[in-house]
Amino acid sequence: MVTQYGIKLGVHLMTNQFGNIVAKVCESLLRRGPLTLQLIVRFTELTPQQVKSSLLILIQHNCVQAFSLEQQDGLEDGPKANTQYLALFNNILHRMRFSKFLKIVSSEFDECKELLEGLLQHGRLTLKQMVEREREKSSKKDGNCEDIVQENLLKLLAARYVERCPIHEPVLATPVKDETTAKRRGAKSSKRNEESETIEQRVLGAAAPMDAQRFSIITNTGSNVSRETSVGEKRKYDALELDRESAVEEEEVVLLRANFEEFMCRLRHKACIENVRTRLDDGASIVLRAMLEAVRSLEKRVKTEKSVPLSLNTIFEEVMNSEEGRGMTLDRVRASLVQLGCSSSARGTDESYSIDLKKIVELAQNDEVESIVLKRYGRNAYKMFRLLSKTGCLVETEKISDTTFVEKKEAPKMLFKLWSDGYLHMEKITVAAARQSQFLLWKVNKPSLQEHVLDEMFHAALNLSKRVAYEREKEKELINLPADKQVMSREERHKRRRNVAFVLESSLRELDDAVMLFHDFEEPSLLKA
Amino acid sequence: MSRLQGPSSHKRKQPEPNSASGSLTEHERILYHVIKSKQNMGIWTRDMKWETKLPDYVVVKSLKSLQAKKLIKEVVNVQNKGRKHYIAAEFEPSKEITGGTWYAGGNLDTEFINFLQKHCVKIIYEQKVATLEGILDTIRRSRAFNVEFTPQQIEEIVNALVLDNEITEVESNGMGEFDSIPVGTVCYMCTNKGGRKGEPKIGAMASIPCGVCPQISLCTPDGIISPQTCVHFTKWLDF
Ligand code: SF4
User: Fold this and answer.
1) DSSP-assigned beta bridge partners for residue A162
2) Helix (H/G/I), strand (E/B), else coil: A310
3) Which candidate in B96, B110, B152, B163 is best for mutational testing of the A interface (most A CBs within 10 A)?
4) In CATH, what is the architecture of B109-190?
5) Which pLDDT score, from 0 to 100, does residue B226 have?
């Protein structure tokens, strides 16, 4: 979902990091959908050179993907004329999350943190560049550096935190309808959104390296001997083929980057575990964590689309493996599974369980929206909203006030407010015969509500971010004031600045967690466990 | 608090003996007839005038005298408290007029409802897992109320508590805490508030000024209301 304020936030992030010109190019792509170089030049009124270098920066940082369409009319247009550029909204937003990605890696492989930091900072790097970076940082001997980098890189590849970059310019087979016409994204119509998402999915699908290649590097170690490293075990044949291929492709340079998808998957699991901890209890969260761990290690061996049903024994074993879970009994684990709403299916003699993460995400989304309603509109609104959210269908005003014990006079006013703020859907029904001829029916319309709440969250994130910048400016002004005009002492000012930065930045981080809940955790690629 | 201690105020009154109706004037009789024909729904004065075609002052005068003779009574209509609404004395006003059990004198009896709700939460808290019948049974045995509750009334109260997120609805699985409850029965438990007392966990959005700001739709980065000039922010960041 790319909403109006989503675009504004994205553009703001780009401006902060790459300056106005790059942001302008990015904005025109976000608003209009994929464009050719000429069209970007026309829409942004920048020089072709400016646009080109902006695109290079954006591609380097994985914010834009180039692609072209297969020519069908046989016109001898140069391939360049047809190249289109697509802004990758998700990747742009991920830039807010780099600290979270780093935290994940440092908790698992602390020694790899710097490597990932380099990748995040530079977008894409070759092995050679990584080694050079390492060499600059440490004064170690050359050979040593290479080994360290390679070793760490292999760990990150095996954990899928790093991947090969996609193909630079994939060719899409059939022209996508409406491709070149300027398409406004972020418009209210979700149909259009869907359509543009299909283009995005198609492009990304075409650009993605083959699964076997994705998490492997082929390194030519001096003596032209190709060493191939891969996470999969089942591809001896491919490896040979690949080697030959890469030899032909004049020793292709392997560009690597952070694999955002895997990080988002981890963050999603973390969010689910946290939600279960607060909503249910520690036991349930321990069991969920164990299940996700078990699935993860299984996943590494077998590539699964859906969450694998786990046997009670496997789950119990994994729970016992964790420090916090050691004290749990089998009965306790079983009870937690029930609490988690895990559907058990008896296969043979073994009970097996699978997790419905989608459901947990949904509950977490509900919590978030309900808490907004409670804080912004009060308890009565909260009750009525929860009723409508729970029933999921149209309910008449009177019925709402009866069920929630909200005064008959107060109920319609509050419902109306929620409606005008985009939190409820309303329908009028006119009955010709009766005296009270008009009835109002209310409903929570999930998809449009989610889009609305997400847009408000983007808006709030933009506001926080703008305020951070404003506070910095103000600070600068204060410092430059002559001594007799200073209202605060240096220490006071210092303390205030620290507090303000802390509050704003930690709020932004937490708000981004909520954004992910609504924006990223429903991505199809993350729906597998 | 009448329903908590004294006898029920909702006891049906015996119909008045109809002796007085003999001494009615022509207008009074017409009016009384119309009111009575509406049974427990009663009728609004404007509708009476329209139906009887009697002039205003006649209606006002007749209503007074009918009321003095205890043949009709005025009731508060919850739908529209400003409207004068009358009903024949022998009827109890319908649920549509009074608002039902939870209304007293045209107003929601919040004191009574709150008391009953607190009582139910206490029962659920003590029983850990409670069924509707269990709650009703405990209330009946406790004799805290002089009113007999129907299962439906208790269900209404409990449902509202669920919406309030005071309690949570769960289905019995017949294990552990549920072992005495048949599988599939709807049960109630007190809501786990995530550690913090009383209030549910506040979400990320609701913890910042913009999340609860009524002006968010008017606020733009460079507009009159903006994050740079925002008073809510200034207050929030006042260290
Ligand atoms: S910046 Fe201030 S005015 Fe704007 S939405 Fe946030 S709290 Fe409201």
Assistant:
1) A258
2) strand
3) B163
4) Orthogonal Bundle (1.10)
5) 93
* pLDDT at A327 exceeding the cut of 50: yes
Q: In this predicted model, what pLDDT tens digit does every residue of A62-71 receive, in sequence order? A: 999 999 887 6
Q: Is B113 in the pocket of ligand 1 (CB under 6 A)?
A: no
ipTM of the complex: 0.79
d(CA A61, CA A119): 9
**Residue at A454: amino acid letter:** L
Asked if residue B134 has its Cβ within 6 Å of ligand 1, the reply is no
Q: A75: pLDDT confidence band, cut at 50, 70 and 90?
A: low
Nearest 5°: phi and psi at B24?
-90, 150
Parse chain B into domains and list their residue ranges: 2-101, 109-190, 208-239
Task: Enumerate the H helices of A224-346 as residue ranges.
Answer: 236-248, 260-279, 282-301, 312-321, 330-339
Annotation: CATH topology of B2-101: Arc Repressor Mutant, subunit A (1.10.10)
pLDDT at B9 over 50: no
Long-range contacts formed by B127-132: CB under 8 A, 24+ apart: B128/B177, B128/B189, B129/B170, B129/B172, B129/B177, B129/B178, B129/B181, B129/B187, B129/B188, B129/B189, B130/B187, B130/B188, B130/B189, B131/B181, B131/B185, B131/B186, B131/B187, B131/B188, B132/B158, B132/B186, B132/B188
Question: CB distance from B220 to chain A under 8 Å?
Answer: no
Q: Separation of B215 CA from ligand 1 center, angstroms? A: 6
- What are the CA-CA distances from residue A78 to residues A203, A207, B198, B204 (Å)? 20, 20, 68, 51
Instruction: Please answer whether residues B31 and B13 qualify as being in contact, where contact means their C-beta atoms are separated by less than 8 angstroms.
Output: no
Rounded to two decimals, what is the model's pTM?
0.81
Alpha helix locations (H) across A76-189? 89-94, 98-108, 113-122, 127-137, 142-158
